[in-house]
Amino acid sequence: MAKKSGKDYFGLGRVISLILAIIPVTAWILGAITRFCEGKIVAGLIRLIFGFNIVWLIDLILMIVNGRIMRLLNI
Predict the structure, then answer these.
(1) What is the pTM (predicted TM-score) of this model?
(2) What's the rounded mean pLDDT across residues 49-75?
(3) Is 4's pLDDT higher than 60?
(4) Confidence of residue 59 (pLDDT cuts 50, 70, 90)
(5) Please, what's the b/e burial string for 19-43 (b: 16 or more CB within 10 A of its CB; e: otherwise)?
(6) Distance of alpha carbon 56 from the chain centroid
(7) Among residues 62, 71, 10, which one has the least CA distance to residue 40?
(8) Which pLDDT belongs to residue 6?
(9) CA of residue 62 relative to chain centroid, distance
(10) What is the full DSSP assignment across 26-62?
C-alpha cells in the first residue's frame, strides 16, 4: 500500500501543486499517477479517461480551496 502524504502530487508544497494543477495536461497525468500510487487502480483509470475535462476543473477548484485533488471514488 502506498504511503499517504499530507499534500497531493507526491508531497510537493501547496504552491507547486497549484501551479501543476493549473496546467490541464499536467493535472491530468499527475492526478492519474497520484491515484495509482495510492493503490486506487479503478480511480486512476477513470482519471485517465475522464480527467481532462470536468474533473480538471473540479481538481483546480479543490486545489485552490483545500490543497487536495478530488477523491470521489475510493476503489
Answers:
(1) 0.75
(2) 82
(3) no
(4) confident
(5) ebbeeeeebbbbbbebbbebebeeb
(6) 9
(7) 71
(8) 52
(9) 10
(10) HHHHHHHHHHHHTT-HHHHHHHHHHTTTHHHHHHHHH
